[in-house]
Write a structure and sequence with these properties.
The protein is α+β, with helices and mostly antiparallel strands. About 35% of the residues lie in helices and about 15% in strands. The strands form three sheets. It has a five-stranded antiparallel beta sheet with strand order 2-1-5-4-3. It has a two-stranded antiparallel ribbon with strand order 6-7. A two-stranded antiparallel sheet has the order 8-9. α1 packs antiparallel against α2 and α1 runs parallel beside α4. The protein is rod-shaped.
Length: about 300
Amino acid sequence: MGEQDDAGAGVSSAGVSGLVVTEIERLRMFSRIARAVAGDFDLGELVRIVTDAATQWSGGKFGAFFYNQIDEQGEIYSLYTLSGVPRSAFADFEMPRKTAVFAPTFDGDGVVRSEDIRKDPRYGLSAPHFGMPKGHLPVVSYLAVPVISRTGAVHGGLFIAHDEPGRFGEEAEEIVKTIAAHAAIAIDNAALLREARRESETRRIAHEASAKLAAIVAHSDDAILSKSLDGTITSWNASAERLFGYTADEAVGRHITLLIPEDRLHEEDMIIGGVREGQRTDHFETLRRRKDGALVLT
């Protein structure tokens, strides 16, 4: 689909010069794509739908969508889907690089439309092939449209090709640009859905961990309570109720000095001060006051 190093490894849909698509046909096509974008398809299926539509309705002979991914070296372009030819057609070729022909698409700078890409001044400049490698799909007419997220990020590009010259006119270009916009929406939505699912799974795991911890605290034989930095009691387990005589309803929301004898109030200032400074407070034995006024060793 163009030259391996410049125009070929990524081909999308191209349109026949003089292509005529009636308004009704155009509306039906975009309606089908819009329904697909709004449906519950996975990303691979969505990209296949838009690539097939771009290839068919632009008059292209074969088309492809290449995904713009960032790897450890800075960038990589992965073949996501093909239309018009089997995927094996690319089995022996490397993925495209950001050469002179591909750069405008992968950088999101604009559409590249050529009646004969072999005559384009940007074509054939890159080693090792300086053109299409042997056995590559015969790309002559060439149309490449970037697929750009609403955030401005370039997802990749739709590349359309034909083995005859002069197959893509303005009509074909407009069709593929519109389809590319739908593809961008589909990819954005798929990313949002993945993120929502990740967040939901994270919340589920956190909830389960919290519930497990709460169960451990509730059934512990040790008196366990928690408090805020201002000293307000925020939780109170059954063992705390047995030890101090206060129910959870009586204790939660009140200040921790409820339990501290007057001659030991300085201990609370010391503990809270250390926590505020990020210090670890080790357990130490002290006296606390029960509801009935009796002192207990804790």
